[in-house]
Amino acid sequence: MKAERFLSKLNIEKGQTILITGGNSGIGKEEARMLCKCGCRVILACRRVEAGNEAKREFEMEMPGCKVQVIHLDLTSFESMDEFIEEVQKLDLDAIHFNAGIYRVPFTKGICDFESHMAVNFAANYYILDRLLPHLESLPHPVKVLFTTSVVARYYRIAPICYDGGKRYKKERSYAYSKTALNMVYLTLLKRSKSTNIIPILVHPGICFTPLIEKAYPNKRFRLLASKFIRFFFNSPKKGALPALLALSEATKSPCLLGPRGLFHSAGIPKSYPLYRGNLKNAEEMLLVARERFAKQGIEIKLN
Ligand SMILES: NC(=O)c1ccc[n+]([C@@H]2O[C@H](COP(=O)([O-])OP(=O)(O)OC[C@H]3O[C@@H](n4cnc5c(N)ncnc54)[C@H](OP(=O)(O)O)[C@@H]3O)[C@@H](O)[C@H]2O)c1
């Protein structure tokens, strides 16, 4: 089924306000575009504000009168995250999507001395959510909280090595750990949200050709080969945005995991399926370690 046909069947309520981190690029940008088409007000939280403004201009040319706002967010900086949190606390959001992320980057350290995948994809989102939760819970209507995970999150068992990259740093493994840890944030929020207005939802886009993948695999031969099979094993960024759009539609009223229905969940139209919990046994410890590291910096994380 074509993305447009699937989208035409989704009922996304007009006038909602939805914030997407990393909404200037790839899947987040396509999600924002489609939400604008549905008459939603979209807030793009971007590390590169100029790229956010460019996306805004593009949407306005395509859909005159659409409502798009750009705000700054750098997930590597507490100063930026605190400014972002202050700004968002003034907003009446219907949904927030933690979409921004990094993949297969060279070894560096990020906030709380975490390896950078863990720092950006997990710890920063954990911190922001913890700070925003009282505000989101105070809103007089349901608020959907979306997290972008990945199919690779299920393939690695959690070990202490994951926090700092280990002696033999492996990019793919560190990325997978960071998304597993994000799954744990989802499960923690799920526990807490049972009697509140918060609806946590995990989405994953399958595998999509976006700047993230292009930067991770600069090899031309690989990309040529992949493009031959793209229709079967890869989603376009537009199709990759469908799980999030399904999550934001009226069809989704309760917590779930949404991802492509194809082989290995790598491509296709989205559906809901159970979260694989086989490797999550030790994962709770990841949140504990994060809280301890935040505490060392004088930051108390209440979401646990
Ligand atoms: N593409 C796939 O196959 C795939 C598969 C599974 C999961 N995902 C997940 O989907 C999400 C979106 O990825 P994508 O494929 O659309 O890639 P993308 O086009 O590279 O988008 C990633 C976004 O995250 C932003 N970002 C990165 N580091 C940041 C930071 N420190 N602070 C704030 N924003 C930051 C990027 O900003 P800049 O534009 O400034 O770099 C960009 O807007 C990611 O979480 C990724 O892990 C992707």
CATH hierarchy class name:
Alpha Beta
In helices, the fraction of residues equals 40-55%
What's the overall average pLDDT, rounded?
A: 91
Structure classification: alpha/beta
Bound ligands, each once: NADP nicotinamide-adenine-dinucleotide phosphate
Rg: 18 Å
Major pleated sheet? 8 strands, mixed
How does CATH name the architecture? 3-Layer(aba) Sandwich
CATH superfamily: NAD(P)-binding Rossmann-like Domain
Terminal CA distance reads 40 Å
What keyword list fits this structure?
304 residues, alpha/beta, Rossmann fold, eight-stranded mixed beta sheet, 43% helix, globular, binds NADP nicotinamide-adenine-dinucleotide phosphate
Structural summary, described in words:
By secondary structure, the protein is an alpha/beta fold. It has a single domain, classed as Rossmann fold, CATH 3.40.50.720. The protein is built from twelve helices and eight strands. It has an eight-stranded mixed sheet, with helices on both faces. Helix 4 (78-88) runs parallel beside helix 5. It is globular and about 50 Å long. NADP nicotinamide-adenine-dinucleotide phosphate binds next to helix 2 and helix 7.
